[in-house]
Q: What sequence folds into this?
C-alpha cells in the first residue's frame, strides 16, 4: 500500500511541480529562494523513512531501476549539449573559464574533504577516497535557477557578467561529472593502494569504452530514417543499457551516459537526430528532475548536529573554491571586460547535476559513510540554494551596471 | 507504433543486413558484459535496468527486420523475447525479468486504455449486429467445437489419466472457454502498427475487448460446473460466479470513474499527459493488486479488480463521454512504442517453449482445430449479420491470437485442479504459444486484405 501511496504522491508532486516550480517572478524575492527546487528535497525528506515513511526503503528499492534510468537520462542530455559546433560558437574563452573555475573548485574542496573524512571516520580508504571525490565533484557543479532569480529581482547588472555566469553554470558541471566518473572508476569497489592503482585504471578505460559502445549502438540505429517513436525506443534502450551496465559494474551511470551523449552529439551524420533527441528529452526533463529531487530527499537520512556542522564547513569550503575559481579563471577576460573579482559569488547554486552526483554515490556505494556524505551534501545543497540568489545579485551588482 | 511514411528506401536488404549486424553486435556486447558482471542469485536492479535496455534495443531491431519480411513488428518483439529468453540464449532470464514485472503489468493496463479509447460508440452503433453475432457465434462454435475435440482426444489418448467421462467433459468445457479467448492487446498493437482505421478493425477490436468480459464470466460458470462434476457432494458453487460478476462490475465502474477524471484533466489541458497516462496505468495495476491481496487476506475471496477492464472502461469513457479521445490517443501514441516493445518482448520471453517441445503434436492439433472453428463461427456470424464479402472471408484472421487472458485462465485452472491440471497446462500453454506467434501475422494480413492498413505502414508500399 505504501508503494502505491508513494507513487501517487510522487506523481502528483512532479506534476504540480513541473507546472509551478522554477518560474521566477510569481513570489516576492524574499520568499523565492525557498522555492528554487530545494523544497522538493524537503518534501522527499518528509515523505521518507525518517518522517512519514510513505517512501520507505522497500519503495526506494522498487524504484531503483527507474532512478538508474533517470541518472542515465540526465548524463546523456548533458553530454548531448556539448556539440562541437555549438561549443565553438560560444564566446571566446568561456569554455576555458568554466573548466578552470571547475577545476579550481574541485582542487579546493577535494583535499579538505579527504583530510576531514580521514580524520573523522574509520571507513576503508577507497570509500573515503570516493566520498571525498564525490563531494568535490558535486561542489564544482553550478545551477541556473539562482541566476534566473537574480536577473528577475536584482539591480541592473552587467549583461556581460550575467552571460558569463550563465555559461559557466551550464558548462562547469562537466568537470564534476568527469571527476565523479573517474572517482567511481578508480575507487568504488577496488582496493586503494599504490600497487593496485594501475589495475584500477582499467575501469576508467572501461567507463569511457562503455560510453563509446552505447553511442555507437545508438548511432548505428539512427543511420536510417527513423520515426520519432522509434527514436524514443532507441534512446530509452541506449540510456537504460548505459546506465544499467554502469551500475552493474559499480561505475558512474552519469559519466558513461555523458560520454555516450557527447559522442552522439559530435558525430557529423547524426546532427539532425540531435535536435529530435533533444525534443524528446526536453519533454520529460522537468518531470524527471523533480522526481530526482523528491527521491534524493527520501534517500536523505535525518541529519544530526554533526551533519549540520559538516554541511556548513562544506558550504564554506565550496564558497572559497567558487570565489577562487571565479577569480582565477576570469583574469584574462578581465583585461577586456569589467569582471568583478568576486564573480564566484554568482556560482553558489549547486543545481541538479550536483544532486545527481550525490544520489549516484548513494546507489553505487551503499555504506554508512556514503549515507552520511549524502546527508551532508544534500543539506549543503539546500543551504546553497537558499543563499545563491542573494549572492548572485551581489556578484552581478559588482560589475557596476555597465550593461556592456 | 507509427512509422514515418516513406522512410524505407530501396535498399531493404541492405537495411536488414545492417540491422542484423547491429543486433549481433548488441548481443555479443551484452553476452561479454554478462561474463564480466558477477551474477547474483536474485537480479540486482542495475542488471534488470541493463537488460531492459537490451530488450528494448534488440526487440526494436528484430521488429524492423521482420517488418521487411512483411510480418508485423510485434512478431519481431515476441521473437526477440523467445530468442534471448530463458529457453534460448537465456539473456532475458526469469531472474532478470522479475524486477521488471511491474513494468509489464503497467504495459498491459496501458494497452487496455488504448483499446478502450479506440472504441468509438458512433462506429460501434453501426456495427452492433456484426459484433453481437461475432461474439455469440464464434464463442459458441469455438467452445463446443474445441471442447468436443478435446473431449474426444482426451478420452482416446488418455492424457487426463483415468478421469471418468463426466469429469473429462467438465474439463473440456473449461478448455473450450479458454480456446474462445482472444488477445485485445495484440489486436490493438497491430491496429496501431498498421494505422488501420475502418469498420473491420473497429469490429475486430470491439469483439476482442467485449469477448474478454464474456470469457471471464463463462470461465467462472465453467469452473463452477466443473467443481460440481468433481465434488458433487458440495453442490454448485454459485459464490464464485457472483464474485466474478462483482469483479467485472466493480472494474467497469472504477474505469468509468477514472475515465471521467482523466477526461477532465485532458479537457483542462493538464501538463505531461503522456507521463500521466503511464503513471495512471501503473497505479491501476498496483491498486488492483492491493485490492486482490486485501480481499484474499481479509475475506478469503480469490478475486480482485481487472486492470485491463478498468483501463478499457476508462479509455471508452474518455473517447465517448468526455470526447477527449483524440487528445488521449495522441498523447498515448508518443509513448506507445516503448510500451509495446517491452510488453511483447516480455511475453515472448515468458513463452514456455519447453511446453511446446513436449506436447507440440497435440497442441498443433488443438490450435488447428480452434482455427477451423473460428473460421466456421465467423463465417456464420458475418452471414447472419449480412456483412460484405471481405468481412466474411477475412474476419477469422483477426481472432487467432491468444495471450494474457488465456494464460491467466490456464493458471487458474492449474491452481483449482492441481491433481491433473499441470499436465493439461503444458498442452494449453503450447497452444497459446502457437496462437501468439501466428495470430499477429494473420491479423495484419487481414487488415491488408480488407484495405484498412494504411499504405505508409507497410514497408513494401512505402514510397521512397
A:
Amino acid at each position: 500500500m505504501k508503494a502505491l501511496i508513494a507513487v501517487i504522491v510522487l506523481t502528483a508532486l512532479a506534476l504540480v511541480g513541473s507546472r509551478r516550480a522554477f518560474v521566477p517572478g510569481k513570489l516576492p524575492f524574499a520568499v523565492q529562494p525557498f522555492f528554487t527546487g530545494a523544497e522538493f528535497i524537503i518534501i522527499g525528506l518528509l515523505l521518507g523513512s525518517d518522517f512519514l515513511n510513505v517512501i520507505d526503503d522497500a519503495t526506494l528499492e522498487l524504484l531503483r531501476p527507474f532512478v538508474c534510468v533517470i541518472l542515465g537520462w540526465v548524463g546523456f542530455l548533458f553530454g548531448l549539449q556539448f556539440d562541437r559546433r555549438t561549443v565553438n560558437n560560444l564566446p571566446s574563452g568561456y569554455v576555458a573559464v568554466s573548466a578552470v573555475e571547475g577545476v579550481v573548485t574541485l582542487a579546493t574542496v577535494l583535499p579538505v574533504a579527504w583530510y576531514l573524512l580521514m580524520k573523522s571516520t574509520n571507513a576503508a580508504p577507497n570509500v573515503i577516497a570516493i566520498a571525498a571525490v564525490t563531494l568535490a565533484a558535486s561542489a564544482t557543479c553550478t545551477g541556473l535557477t539562482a541566476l534566473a532569480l537574480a536577473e528577475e529581482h536584482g539591480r541592473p547588472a552587467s549583461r556581460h557578467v550575467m552571460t558569463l555566469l550563465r555559461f559557466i553554470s551550464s558548462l562547469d558541471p562537466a568537470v564534476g561529472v568527469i571527476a565523479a566518473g573517474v572517482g567511481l572508476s578508480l575507487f568504488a569497489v577496488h582496493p586503494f593502494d599504490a600497487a593496485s592503482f594501475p589495475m584500477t585504471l582499467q575501469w576508467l578505460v572501461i567507463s569511457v569504452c562503455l560510453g563509446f559502445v552505447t553511442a555507437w549502438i545508438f548511432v548505428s540505429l539512427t543511420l536510417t530514417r527513423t520515426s520519432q517513436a522509434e527514436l524514443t525506443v532507441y534512446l530509452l534502450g541506449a540510456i537504460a543499457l548505459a546506465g544499467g551496465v554502469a551500475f552493474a559494474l559499480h561505475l558512474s551511470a552519469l559519466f558513461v551516459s555523458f560520454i555516450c551523449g557527447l559522442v552522439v552529439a559530435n558525430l557529423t551524420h547524426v546532427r539532425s537526430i540531435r535536435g529530435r533527441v533533444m525534443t524528446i528529452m526536453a519533454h520529460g526533463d522537468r518531470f524527471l528532475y523533480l522526481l530526482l529531487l523528491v527521491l534524493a530527499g527520501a534517500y536523505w537520512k535525518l541529519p544530526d548536529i554533526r551533519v549540520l556542522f559538516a554541511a556548513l564547513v562544506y558550504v564554506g569550503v565550496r564558497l572559497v573554491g567558487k570565489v577562487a575559481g571565479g577569480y582565477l579563471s576570469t583574469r584574462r577576460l578581465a583585461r577586456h571586460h569589467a569582471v568583478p573579482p568576486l564573480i564566484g559569488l554568482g556560482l553558489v547554486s549547486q543545481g541538479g547535476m550536483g544532486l545527481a552526483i550525490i544520489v549516484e554515490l548513494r546507489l553505487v556505494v551503499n555504506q554508512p559513510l556514503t549515507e552520511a556524505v549524502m546527508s551532508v551534501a544534500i543539506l549543503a545543497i539546500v543551504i546553497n540554494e537558499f543563499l545563491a540568489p542573494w549572492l548572485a545579485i551581489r556578484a552581478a551588482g559588482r560589475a557596476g551596471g555597465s550593461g556592456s | 507504433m507509427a512509422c514515418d511514411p516513406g522512410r524505407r528506401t530501396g535498399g531493404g536488404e541492405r537495411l536488414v543486413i545492417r540491422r542484423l549486424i547491429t543486433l549481433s553486435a548488441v548481443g555479443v556486447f551484452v553476452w561479454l558484459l554478462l561474463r564480466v558482471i558477477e551474477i547474483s542469485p536474485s537480479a540486482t536492479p542495475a542488471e534488470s535496468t541493463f537488460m531492459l535496455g537490451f530488450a528494448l534495443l534488440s526487440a526494436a531491431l528484430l521488429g524492423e527486420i521482420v517488418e521487411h519480411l512483411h510480418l508485423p513488428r510485434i512478431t519481431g518483439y515476441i521473437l526477440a523475447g523467445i530468442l534471448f529468453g530463458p529457453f534460448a540464449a537465456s539473456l532475458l532470464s526469469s531472474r532478470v525479468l522479475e524486477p521488471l514485472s511491474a513494468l509489464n503489468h503497467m504495459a498491459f493496463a496501458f494497452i487496455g486504455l488504448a483499446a478502450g479509447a479506440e472504441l468509438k460508440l458512433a462506429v460501434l452503433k453501426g456495427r452492433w449486429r456484426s459484433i453481437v453475432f461475432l461474439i455469440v457465434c464464434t464463442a459458441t462454435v469455438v467452445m463446443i467445437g474445441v471442447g468436443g475435440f478435446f473431449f474426444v482426444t482426451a478420452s482416446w489418448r488418455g492424457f487426463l489419466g483415468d478421469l471418468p467421462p463426466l469429469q473429462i467433459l467438465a474439463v473440456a468445457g473449461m478448455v473450450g472457454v479458454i480456446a474462445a479467448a482472444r488477445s485485445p492487446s495484440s489486436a490493438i498493437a497491430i491496429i496501431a502498427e498498421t494505422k488501420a482505421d475502418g469498420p473491420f478493425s473497429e469490429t475486430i477490436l470491439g469483439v476482442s475487448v467485449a469477448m474478454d468480459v464474456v470469457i471471464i464470466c463463462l470461465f467462472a460458470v465453467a469452473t463452477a460446473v466443473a467443481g460440481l462434476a468433481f465434488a458433487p457432494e458440495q453442490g454448485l458453487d454459485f459464490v464464485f460466479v457472483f464474485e466474478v460478476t462483482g469483479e467485472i462490475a466493480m472494474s467497469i465502474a472504477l474505469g468509468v470513474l477514472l475515465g471521467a477524471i482523466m477526461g477532465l484533466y485532458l479537457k483542462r489541458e493538464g501538463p505531461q499527459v503522456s507521463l500521466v497516462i503511464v503513471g495512471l496505468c501503473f497505479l491501476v495495476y498496483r491498486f488492483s493488486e492491493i485490492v486482490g491481496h486485501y480481499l484474499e487476506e481479509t475475506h478469503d475471496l480469490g478475486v480482485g479488480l481487472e486492470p485491463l477492464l478498468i483501463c478499457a472502461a476508462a479509455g471508452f469513457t474518455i473517447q465517448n463521454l468526455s470526447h477527449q479521445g483524440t487528445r488521449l490517443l495522441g498523447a498515448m501514441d508518443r509513448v506507445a512504442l516503448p510500451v509495446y516493445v517491452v510488453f511483447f518482448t516480455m511475453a515472448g520471453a515468458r513463452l514456455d517453449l519447453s511446453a511446446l517441445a513436449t506436447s507440440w503434436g497435440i497442441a498443433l492439433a488443438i490450435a488447428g482445430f480452434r482455427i477451423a472453428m473460428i473460421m466456421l463461427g465467423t463465417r456464420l456470424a458475418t452471414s447472419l449479420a449480412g456483412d460484405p464479402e471481405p468481412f466474411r472471408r477475412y474476419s477469422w484472421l483477426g481472432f487467432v491470437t491468444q495471450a494474457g487472458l488465456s494464460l491467466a485462465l490456464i493458471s487458474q485452472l492449474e491452481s483449482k485442479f492441481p491433481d491433473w491440471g499441470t499436465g493439461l497446462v503444458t498442452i494449453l500453454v503450447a497452444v497459446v504459444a502457437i496462437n501468439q506467434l501466428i495470430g499477429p501475422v494473420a491479423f495484419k494480413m487481414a487488415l491488408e486484405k480488407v484495405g484498412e492498413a494504411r499504405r505508409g505502414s507497410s514497408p513494401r508500399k512505402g514510397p521512397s
User: Anything to note?
Assistant: Confidence is low (pLDDT under 50) at residues 399-404 of chain A. DSSP finds 17 helices and no strands in chain A. Chain A has one domain: 2-397. Chain A touches chain B through 47 residues (CB under 8 Å).
